[in-house]
Amino acid sequence: MPINDNIDFIREVNLNQYKSSVFLFGPRMTGKSYLLQRLKADLKIDLLEPDTEFTLRAQPRLFWDELRSVRKGGRVIIDEIQKVPELLGYVHKAIEQLGLSFVLSGSSARKLKRSAADMLAGRALDLRLFPLTLCEVDGRIPLEKILLFGSLPRIAALVAQQESEEAARILKAYHTVYIKEEIQSEALTRNLSAFQRFLPVVAQSNAQMIEYQNISRESSVAASTVKEYFQILEDTLIGFFLWPWNRSERKKARPKFYFFDNGVLRSIQKRVAERPTPEEMGMLFESWFVNEARRVLNYQESSAELGLWREGHHEIDLVIEKGGRILAAFEVKTGKNFSVDPSQKAFRMRFPNVPLFLVAKDLEKPRVIGNKDESIRVISAEEAVQRIRKF
Hints:
Blueprint: E1 21-25, H1 32-37, E2 43-46, H2 50-58, H3 61-67, E3 75-79, H4 87-97, E4 101-106, H5 110-113, E5 124-128, H6 134-137, H7 143-149, H8 153-160, H9 164-184, H10 192-204, H11 212-219, H12 223-235, E6 239-242, E7 256-259, H13 262-268, H14 278-299, E8 305-311, E9 314-322, E10 325-333, H15 342-350, E11 356-360, E12 367-369, E13 376-380, H16 381-389
Parallel strand pairs: 1-4, 1-5, 2-3, 3-4, 10-11, 11-13
Antiparallel strand pairs: 6-7, 8-9, 9-10, 12-13
């Protein structure tokens, strides 16, 4: 049976609404090329084509010759711009002199940071594409499956069509392809074997407080290099840090690190075909929820930011903040028996007027736990996501 990779999923990103130039960044397999293929343009350049990449890398001036043939006000699409960042100089020139607009996609911002990308500041919007949100999945896949396989469009399509084994096979190859095409081919590190040791160790630390020395010891990689490798993970959009809320203490605070997709995470952990333990399911639920909040706020172009709350031994998984104030807090639980724990009590005492929610994976109907002074509303993941959309 033919597999429908993306067609059934309506994305929250609508590139047609933007008249100005845009960067569209997203990890591999998030559907960038699919969206670009459906955009009308006067010129399309696909740098995933080896011949095209080779030619323009060797003679970038040919790109300018092509641009000059495009009508004034026309649109140009370049897929995987980071492969030939030298083209950005001509992009800038074409915006200024030819009145063209561009849609530039990429799976890594690292090379662009070191190139001419800054010259497009103010001239190109910075958009992100993520794995599918709950809204985009639209009930085609149960949350339980999303926690195990993630929600990259192709993977989600396979899972929705009861092809979980094929989805697992593709996920198993994901991090191998990532290392080959994002790390090795782009020469992002000179010591590939060290990075290959580092990656699975970090995956085991997903959703945990980062201890650089521990990761250094377990991967046999110098602590200074470990920090560089985390920067590579961020720049290639494979993961991100979640920082404690108190900005004044950030230099002393230790963040958590989250991979961008549960399926990719489990692939790196070599767990994608394994049944998760209850403890692992708790981590997967937290990781998915933090990622979902990040996706939703980004797509809505919200000025709200994500963080975690930590004070002493107390911690709350996720806080929504804006203008230095916490607007709401969320604690994530996979169990079915709920009670107010010491961290939730501490947060309630510290911020008595801030809404605090306990997000439950399996919940038939919302409820309230605790007494009047420390009451917490227990809600479903779906309701929690809808509340986050309001920020």
